[in-house]
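Entry:
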Amino acid sequence: MKEKLHVLVIPTWFPSKRDKITGTYHQTFCRALVKSEKADVNMIYVDPQGISDIYKYPFIKKKYTNEYEGYTLYAKRMLDYSKFAYGAYIRSYTKKLDKLFCAYVKKHGTPDVIHAQVLLGAGYAAAVIGKKYSIPVVITEHATYFESFFTGSKEKYARFACENAHVTCVGNYMNDILREKYGYESETLPNIVDTTIFSANEKQQSEDGTLRLTTVAALRPPKHIDDTVRALKILRDRGELGRFKFTVVGGGFMEEHYKRVTSELEMNDVVEFVGRKNAQEIAKYLSESDILVMASVIETFGIPAIEALAAGVPVVCTRCKGPEGFLDENCAEFCNTEDPEDLARAIKKMSERYGEMDTGYLQSRANEFSSESVADRAIGIYKKLIK
């Protein structure tokens, strides 16, 4: 086998001007493969444009190329009408991706392996291309709603993808669902967290004894930031927590709702919304935190929890699937989803033990998801398929 593998990554979604967060882990993954020096990597991407842009669509540039650190993205825009005619949409999507692939091969040669991100649509289209040109395909599932792929008009495309590719998932629980409900075997290939950024900052102790709680999240419905505010309200009213502050790092369309709930609960004096921050800024906030709180209803993985562990910060987490695969009682307290009372209990319990946590253990758990570790796992999967 040659020294460097040629890997073509195909994401279903990717960061854009409208949403700079969605799909950033695909960028991180490509950088990790490049950094490993075990693979030459590039991307092709069919960029879906919302139906609300239908009047602008005829006038926008359809193809574009972006250069990133060590790899290139070749993209083509198309109108996303999947909600109205999914079968027609996914077939058109696949044809466009096939044309992108052929143009890519003319420029770079045939890849040794194709790695698609998410079953639909990139996974299905990659499986079609892989079967057509006899190239092994890996699919990594990220979507919290992936079970919806096995319903209605989408089901046959999801099943084709599973039957014609090697499927991996970012969360262990997803493997169980695929096997037990749908009959497909898969393995775990987690998201990457650049743990070095978060372990670099020295942990800052609170000077006045204030308990510092932090949430890092895109402010969207599944994150349930309001449940954390309600839980803290319960604890304050009972006088069970002493002096504390809660910092919310992140932005999104639910921000005003969460702020309104905070005001209605009269918690503005202890809750601060600081907006969206980059990785270095998030690392700084975590270095000044005592506890990370994740109140999500569902998480396929839970990157902020890994970042917190890397920073030596324990986690209070709802039983939201993904994080349960790597958190344990030595680094976390668990509670029920959508249950502020139980969340309050877990926060109270962690407030009594966070100072006793073994920082070395927390960081060792985080390092399992380092760039080097996950890249090596991916390369191992590629080599197994090529053989």
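The CA atoms of residues 130 and 271 lie 50 Å apart.
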